[in-house]
């Protein structure tokens, strides 16, 4: 076998990096890693490189660099910093995020691999001139877990590097230990040329190109975390592809522990952004394993899950003491937190839309100098913070961190929750008849309005399978099939639920209060533990009124009236039928969708129609009581 010192890559690297960096790199006995670093240095041409190990000294250095470079600025509260992405760089860039594929796949945004590689190499040629390249090593999932995927990230942004230290487990030592066996994901990012606000200048050349063949992602001329933090959504795209080959699932799901009588039952939940995902995973009295991404594997008779991340890159809009008490407290306490695209007020405090208290007169935000009533180029008012403004923190700052969050074995999933945003169709909570029924009518049928996490959002209703559509690196049909097969034959598959926090009455008022979701979770917990019975409707199992009444009292000290129950849990047949048609027509246009999806949808339609003949268009839950 070739000794590492003799590999041409490391010999070349020796000429390109300083002695200290070389010493760090040569300890990693993996030519693939060296080759990747060498290639990217050759293309990007940074002034120098900094190799980051797991040491507190190296990690601290990057924290300092983020301040020194001006990418972050200190705020009033100790440990807090603020970072601004460019005015037109505030969300994931769907249009310019493409898969490099030799054979194009319908339904996913792709470009011919060779053409794409050529283009991105050209864009990245000398892109790091005048910049330093940071070289970082991470593990997605707890260290040494069967779930772990290792990753190497190159970036010229100290903000990206700093964010990743908050969000991911560093794993330089694992790279040293595992050498050639590491099979890493590889990410190269450059913010490109910066303007006087330290923002990417060449937004026209913003690209995120994903090479599935080499499990490598290129990101150029952008700073927004969803485009740059390789280990987040760029890694999710690679992981979905790898998982599909290896028989597990990479999902856009939180993981949380729901507590009752001293036991903990774990749930994973998929919600498109701004549908209540983070606030569900952060419910008071429960514990959090992760707020965004989950890897799921079959183990014996159960499904186990880990969070590949260790921190949160969360939407800040609307966080206040009532809506999100734990996050609120954490965000107002000293600790290492990066605020991005929020408003910095006089006195270096931070303000965001939907925070309590009075809106400040003026400050600095993503649009530069900001004052109340400021208008954008289209005459629209500029909010104090961008709707997609975020906070980044390590979950160790949270008081509700679950004790199993770092467990390499993961946690056993008792249930999976799909949560959409719809005003007029779904009941607040419902359980599927079985795994496949849940995958099809709840997961594959997940629907929401488009939101601010995507650049060209317009509020229209969109089907978003498992809330993962933006990240699918495999054909949709295969993805659905993987889900259907995943729990086949399991003695105890997770129960599948769907929730909707956004149901409105005919006057447009929300039918539920923000805190009601705590009750839905507790009901699911009882169902998983076989301690609550339910009413069988044509679309799944719904709670009994008495059960909910006692849960509302116990969990949130609230009287729950039967008329509210009836209003909320009425089966809206016509709306449900319309939804089935929307889902069908979405999947009918896609090749390779398993026929069982259409069968299950059709069965649901027939059940609904039959019920409508018997009970009418709006069926009160009391009908199912006998
Ligand atoms: C989401 O939009 O789902 C996020 C933020 O979690 S991003 O990193 O942009 O994907
Ligand atoms: Mn997300």
Description:
It is a single chain. The protein has 626 residues and is α+β, with helices and mostly antiparallel strands. It has three domains: 4-69 and 92-246, Phosphoenolpyruvate Carboxykinase, domain 1, CATH 3.40.449; 250-310 and 405-624, Phosphoenolpyruvate Carboxykinase, domain 3 (Alpha-Beta Complex), CATH 3.90.228; 313-397, Phosphoenolpyruvate Carboxykinase, domain 2 (Beta Complex), CATH 2.170.8.10. Strand 10 and strand 11 form a beta hairpin. Helix 4 (56-68) packs across helix 6 (158-167) and helix 17 runs antiparallel to helix 18. The chain is globular, with a radius of gyration of 25 Å. Bound molecules: sulfopyruvate and manganese (II) ion (MN). Residues 92, 225-226, 232-233, 273, 292, 313, 453 line the site of sulfopyruvate (SPV).
Helix/strand/pairing class, anyone? alpha+beta
Total helix count?
18
**Overall mean confidence score, pLDDT:** 95
Count of individual beta strands: 33
Q: What general form does the structure show? A: globular
**What kind of assembly state do the chains in view correspond to?**
single chain
Could you give the topology of this structure?
Blueprint: H1 8-16, H2 19-26, H3 31-44, E1 48-51, H4 56-68, E2 73-74, E3 80-83, E4 97-101, E5 110-112, H5 113-124, E6 132-140, E7 149-155, H6 158-167, E8 169-170, H7 172-178, E9 185-190, E10 207-211, E11 216-220, H8 225-228, H9 230-246, E12 249-251, E13 254-260, E14 263-270, H10 277-281, E15 287-290, E16 294-299, E17 302-306, E18 311-315, H11 325-331, E19 337-340, E20 343-344, E21 350-351, E22 362-365, E23 368-371, E24 390-394, E25 411-420, E26 429-431, H12 435-443, E27 447-449, E28 461-463, H13 476-486, E29 495-500, H14 517-528, E30 534-537, E31 540-543, H15 545-556, H16 562-569, E32 571-572, H17 573-588, H18 595-615, E33 618-619
Parallel strand pairs: 1-6, 3-19, 4-5, 4-10, 7-9, 9-11, 14-25, 25-29
Antiparallel strand pairs: 2-3, 6-7, 6-8, 10-11, 12-16, 13-14, 13-15, 16-17, 17-25, 18-24, 19-24, 20-21, 22-23, 26-29, 27-28, 30-31, 32-33
Helix pairs in contact: 1-3, 4-6, 12-18, 14-15, 17-18
The protein binds sulfopyruvate and manganese (II) ion.
């Amino acid at each position: 076998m070739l000794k590492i010192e003799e590999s041409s890559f490391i010999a070349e690297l020796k000429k390109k990096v300083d002695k200290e960096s070389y010493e760090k790199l040569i300890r990693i006995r993996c030519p693939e890693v060296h080759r990747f670093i060498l290639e990217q240095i050759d293309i990007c041409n940074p002034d120098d490189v900094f190799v980051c190990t797991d040491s507190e000294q190296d990690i601290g250095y990057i924290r300092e660099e983020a301040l020194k470079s001006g990418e972050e600025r200190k705020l009033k509260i100790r440990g807090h910093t603020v970072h601004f992405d460019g005015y037109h760089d505030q969300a994931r860039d769907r249009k310019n995020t493409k898969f490099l594929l030799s054979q194009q796949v319908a339904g996913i945004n792709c470009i011919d691999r060779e053409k794409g590689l050529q283009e991105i190499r050209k864009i990245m040629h000398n892109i790091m001139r005048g910049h330093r390249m940071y070289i970082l090593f991470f593990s997605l999932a707890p260290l040494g877990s069967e779930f772990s995927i290792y990753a190497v990230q190159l970036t010229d942004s100290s903000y990206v590097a700093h964010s990743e230290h908050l969000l991911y487990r560093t794993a330089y030592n694992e790279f040293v230990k595992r050498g050639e066996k590491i099979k890493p994901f590889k990410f190269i990012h450059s913010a490109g040329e910066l303007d006087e606000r330290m923002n990417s200048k060449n937004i026209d050349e913003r690209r995120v190109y994903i090479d599935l063949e080499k499990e490598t992602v290129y990101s150029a001329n952008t700073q927004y975390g969803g485009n740059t933090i390789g280990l987040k959504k760029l890694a999710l795209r690679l992981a979905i592809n790898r998982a599909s080959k290896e028989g597990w699932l990479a999902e856009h799901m939180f993981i949380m522990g729901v507590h009752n009588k001293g036991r903990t039952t774990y749930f994973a939940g998929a919600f498109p952004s701004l549908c209540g995902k983070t606030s569900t995973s952060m419910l008071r009295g429960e514990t959090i394993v992760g707020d965004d991404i989950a890897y799921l594997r079959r183990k014996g008779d159960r499904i186990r899950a880990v969070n590949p991340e260790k921190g949160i890159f969360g939407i800040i809009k609307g966080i206040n003491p009532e809506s999100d008490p734990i996050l609120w407290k954490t965000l107002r306490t000293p600790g290492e937190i990066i605020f991005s695209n929020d408003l910095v007020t006089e006195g270096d405090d931070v303000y965001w839309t939907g925070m309590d208290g009075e809106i400040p007169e003026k400050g600095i935000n993503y649009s530069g100098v900001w004052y109340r009533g400021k208008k954008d180029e289209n005459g629209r008012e500029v909010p104090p913070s961008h709707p997609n403004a975020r906070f980044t923190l390590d979950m160790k700052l949270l008081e509700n961190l679950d004790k199993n969050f770092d467990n390499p074995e993961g946690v056993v999933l008792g249930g999976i929750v799909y949560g959409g945003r719809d005003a007029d169709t779904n009941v607040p909570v419902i359980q599927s008849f079985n795994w496949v029924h849940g995958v099809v009518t709840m997961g594959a049928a997940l629907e929401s309005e488009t939101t601010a996490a995507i650049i060209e959002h317009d509020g229209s209703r969109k089907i978003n399978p498992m809330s993962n559509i933006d990240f699918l690196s495999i054909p949709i049909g295969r993805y659905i099939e993987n889900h259907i097969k995943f729990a086949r034959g399991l003695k105890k598959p997770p129960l599948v639920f769907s929730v909707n926090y956004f149901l409105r009455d005919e006057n447009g008022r929300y039918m539920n209060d923000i805190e009601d979701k705590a009750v839905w979770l507790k009901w699911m917990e009882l169902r998983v533990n076989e301690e609550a019975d339910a009413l069988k409707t044509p679309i799944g199992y719904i709670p009994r009124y008495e059960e909910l009444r006692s849960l509302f009292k116990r969990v949130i000290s609230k009287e729950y009236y039967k008329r509210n129950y009836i209003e909320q849990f009425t089966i809206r047949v016509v709306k449900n039928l319309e939804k089935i048609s929307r889902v069908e027509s979405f999947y009918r246009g896609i090749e390779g969708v398993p026929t069982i999806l259409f069968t299950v949808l059709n069965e649901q339609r027939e059940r609904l129609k039959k019920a409508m003949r018997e009970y009418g268009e709006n069926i009160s839950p009391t009908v199912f009581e006998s």
